[in-house]
Amino acid sequence: MSTLRLTPIDPESADLIGRDDGLPAVAPERLEPDWLRRRFASPTAWTPELFEDSLRLSSQALRGAAVLIALVPRAEGLQVLLTRRNLHLHEHAGQISFPGGRCDRQDIHPAATALREAHEEIGLRPAGTEVLGTLPLYCTASRYAVTPVVALIPAAENLQPQPDEVSEVFEVPLAFLMNPRHHELREWRPGNDVAPNPVAVRRRFLVMPYVANGQRYVIWGATAAMLRNLYRLLVA
């Protein structure tokens, strides 16, 4: 029996609802390692944003997973380490994501899952990694309950991505991602698919396009939503 593969969504072809130009960017001093350590050690009250996928799936049985929001220190400021998934993968082919994956029984904490998966996917060694904390669970359309683990990593050189899973590893400035001027709210409606999608529903999601060295990276969906919740934590 063949497995149905749903038509992928092109996020930038979805209707643009608006940009969050009216929200403040996270202040530069809050993007420094010492400030981040203090915020995660003594978090202030803040309210995570709930997106449609999470609301739709919150009452269903989901599989546990964790991702690593790895912050890399550079002379120009902290960078967020991201990957582009291989085009042949069944789920989220070609999409931008954090290293991470499904929780195993031996993982004693979501951080253990995130670090193990990052090592398997991109060759990131856990030695020297400083886990700052976690963000609230995020429920994905692929039926995972994901814990985002935020960590400072000492370096991101000499990584060895698994070619079967990851086609590219790259960095985006944390300051860029923590500025809502770069956050687009888009809405996709069924009906424009090349092939019919029997479970298609209207979806709203964030898109964060980023261009570097002539390459365009479209960060959207769950990855963008988790970054948005990181923004909410840091700006609170």
UniProtKB/TrEMBL annotation:
Location of the Nudix hydrolase domain: 62-207
Top-level taxon of origin: Bacteria
Keyword Magnesium tagged: yes
Cofactor(s) listed in the protein's UniProt record: Mn(2+); Mg(2+)
Claim: Disulfide bond is one of the keywords in the record: no
PROSITE patterns registered for this protein in UniProt: NUDIX (PS51462)
Name of this protein: NUDIX hydrolase
Annotated keywords: Hydrolase, Magnesium, Manganese, Metal-binding
PANTHER family linked: MITOCHONDRIAL COENZYME A DIPHOSPHATASE NUDT8 (PTHR12992:SF11), NUDIX HYDROLASE (PTHR12992)
A single MF term (Gene Ontology): coenzyme A diphosphatase activity
